[in-house]
Amino acid sequence: EKGGWNSFMAKEISEGPEAVENTMRGRLADSHVELDLGALDDEALRSIDRIVIVACGTANYSGLVGKYAIETWARVPVEVDLAHEFRYRDPVLDERTLVISISQSGETMDTKMAVQHAKAQGARTLSICNTQGATIPRESEAVLYTHAGPEVAVASTKAFLAQVIGQLLFGLHLARVRGTMADEAIAEVVAEMRELPAELRQVLAEQEAVHELAHWMADSRSVLFLGRHVGYPVALEGALKLKEISYIHAEGFAGGELKHGPIALIEPGQVVFVVVPSPRNEPLLHSKIVSNIQEIRARGARVIVVAEAGDAAVLPYADVVLRVPLTLPMLEPVLQVVPLHIFALELATAKGLDVDQPRNLAKSVTVE
Ligand code: F6R
């Protein structure tokens, strides 16, 4: 039951810290990650030369975050595909390809069929799933359960965090097995991952600004989201959640794409959320996103930034600042996405909508 919360979505957002904790539990050693992937043993993981991630919706966006981490750490090329596009194509796959499916429910029809499609062509398969014993993990050679706990609200929130964590764990494991990352470097990431639950609690405790924003924006007709690098999937996820439960038109863009079209949408008063990487971690990316902010502000956009607590450089360019603690670049999405989830929830609530049962949507899409 909802345990005192007004909605399952609110409850599940509040469970983010435990979801992340439970996904990491028993899997973090000091300088490595312990994963038992059954048939995908070290030898199998050394034999692959490519990874394709298949998933739908929010799970697909978590895969985009996973791509950046896995490629950086394990030096294996990673593609991210929509399961329904993948299954109706003739993708190039062989026994050296690992197809990773990501699904909260483990029952999404298109994702299941993508796994079958991959198996039929001899690819190896790993399922990252939140539901014990579901169809997709049963169809896969190996499974990494996310242990986020049951997710009831149609809109996925804590499961997204756990999906990102699952891929970070896998990326570190793969990096060790393939010898692409020193123990000290893995230890540094592990140490930062251990901080995430406490940092998430801090983010959840400091969302008064989001609340005010959502009330102020309840009549908005369109909201844009901008990000770069791992902030790009965060922007896509922020936009999806807003469409899904508040029925407001929303789009996510990669910062570098602005000039290639989307900047034409900017008119005075247009609200744009910008996901900003920490300047301490990523000075170059930070300066690029600040340039993007200057470009849209010059055209009258109202800019709401999600920025790291110590980032003072972004202040002159923001109308509203939503703060998250400092972490490593690949871990940033886990914290940055939370204010966006809360924003969607609060805005839909301000509009008087049923956040748990948005119109036209089902929790698990088991038909086409
Ligand atoms: C968005 C949402 C959907 C699901 C998608 C995949 O909030 O919930 O986009 O992420 O339908 O579902 P699973 O992960 O169950 O395969």
TrEMBL record:
Its EC number is 2.6.1.16. Keywords: Aminotransferase, Cytoplasm, Glutamine amidotransferase, Repeat, Transferase. It catalyses: D-fructose 6-phosphate + L-glutamine = D-glucosamine 6-phosphate + L-glutamate. It is an enzyme of class 2 (transferase). It is found in: Cytoplasm. GO terms for cellular component: cytosol. It comes from the Bacteria. Residues 41-185, 213-358 form the SIS domain. GO terms for molecular function: carbohydrate derivative binding; glutamine-fructose-6-phosphate transaminase (isomerizing) activity. One of its GO terms (biological process) is protein N-linked glycosylation. The active site is at K363 (for fru-6p isomerization activity). Catalyzes the first step in hexosamine metabolism, converting fructose-6P into glucosamine-6P using glutamine as a nitrogen source. Homodimer. This is Glutamine--fructose-6-phosphate aminotransferase [isomerizing]. It comes from Agrococcus pavilionensis RW1. The gene is glmS. The chain holds residues 247 to 614 of 614 of the full protein.
